[in-house]
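Milestone M4 deliverable, item 7.
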Amino acid sequence: MENVPGSRGPQRSLAPVVDALCRQAEELTPPRNGGGRIVLPSRDAVLACVEGLRSAFFPGYFGAADLSDEHLHYYIGAMLDRVLHGLEEQVRRGLAFERHEDETSAHCTDRAAEVCGAFMARLPEVRRLVGSDVEAAYDGDPALKIKDEAIFSYPGVLAVTNQRIAHELYALSVPLIPRMITEHAHAVTGIDIHPGARIGERFFIDHGTGVVIGETAIIGTNVRIYQGVTLGAKSFPKDEKGLPIKGIDRHPIVEDDVVIYSGATILGRVTIGRGSSIGGNVWLTHGVAPGSRVTQAEVREAGFEYGGGI
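Output delivered:
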């Protein structure tokens, strides 16, 4: 018999679906914390903290639009206080989930406070680095007439700002949250930078769509890359169970003053020497000396010359 409005047929048919989804959720997550609750960081709350930090880094550009000099100190102080309390709660939840503990445990509470205190102390340096990225965008892009446009609009600046924030939390061994921050930027900009990557000052990603930078990549000072560049891993060493071994340095090192043009792919723990220029669509699995100029044609010739192919 067909279900008619007001009948309870559809509701009864949901019961086995709900049961199946609950079983799958229980398999996915570790044992519930105190009281059987699922305690996880809130993605929305984490991103609100990031936007609060962006407002503190660039007051007037984000957040409140009208700020006078006399209100600036109060505004930044109030914003950082809000971020501190919000972030501490999210870090505490992440720690609790990772350790299968109650979020109110002494360990999670004390560690979250310690982490957030150390993170806040790093913010002036993070802001200095972000400011240097804006300078690099202005110096490196002739289409950019004023720096404000980079702050407001450039996807590379947004993605790198998020990564610099996330990297500080990653370095403090905060679970879950750093990746939330960088993957949000990835979704918005198309630029995928792992929070573990170490990036020097004055880093400029021009255009940006399709850029991928792996976890153990190291990028020096005054590096510029274009859309579609990959700094990836060549292979993944595996353990006795055939699973990738984690924590191994497997991504490129890019030294100071390097330019990498669109579509270039650099794989493995190789070093791109200082002052080098890597041409568009080049595929590299070996390092190059400082001052190198690498083009697609040169890589193809070298590949056949040494029998390795391309």
